[in-house]
Amino acid sequence: MTFGAKSTTDEVLEGVDLSGKRILVTGVSAGLGVETARTLAAHGATVVGAARDLAKAEAATQQVRAGAAHGGSLELVELDLANLASVRRCADALVAAGKPFDAIIANAGVMATPFGHTSDGFETQFGTNHLGHFVLVNRLAALLPAGGRVVELSSSGHRFSDVNLEDPGFEHTEYSPFAAYGRSKTANILFAVEFDRRHKARGVRATAVHPGGIQTELGRHMTPESVQAMIDSITAAAKASGSEASFEWKTAPQGAATSVWAGFVAPADAVGGRYCEDCHVAEVTDGDDLLRAGVRPYALDAEHAKALWAKSEAMVGEAF
Q: Which CATH architecture has domain 9-221+252-310?
């Protein structure tokens, strides 16, 4: 079966029985996280949903519990990715419980925030999107058995910028919300590349995915004008390259489809250490067209990934 940009979560998982599978999904208080949890529980999975605001997540996931089938279920755990003490508390409790995870879907994130810092002093987007998940996933790695997978939600926004290992906190660089977002999303891909390299010998694989453009709470820091300006620039770039394609929003079921495809349908060797979009492995491209599919070479560079890993360990004060 071939899937594409318009495929939905239920289409991708049609006929897939996830009974007995235990899956961690971060960011289950809105948008893609809720949809991901919904479709997994509907196919029989035990879903552990992590969220910063448990009351908000409880309300948002009523549909997940209502639609659970074939023994599927949902439990919620508290996780604030912008606070490493919270990340470590969450991970420690899950490790102490000793129950394995068949997959971890690192879905939570922030986008285009004003300049700020996490509680640990890291630039908000790099600290939340990358470093929070870096500590969480690494602390839980031992709970992933052979056949386990990690799915890191990245973005086509990785094309905005490579990581800057000399100045990750914008102390010497002028801050731009989208440059910072791009750095964090490139970091998500590089983390998957290095995590995959470290764990594939024991049968655990990692991949990064771009869900597509979806109108979720992720864009809460963007004004309607800035959203329209972004769409206009993408459309203009497409026309300049001779493409007739125009920007189209995806629905949440279409956006979460690539996450579940990469986690439970695609062959592990096909997606391990790679970047996926629209339910397929993306091609490496140097093109400047913002609409065109593909992943930048710097985001898959193995040595670059090792350097980011070392820098990340130094920043969080923990070696993995």
A: 3-Layer(aba) Sandwich (3.40)
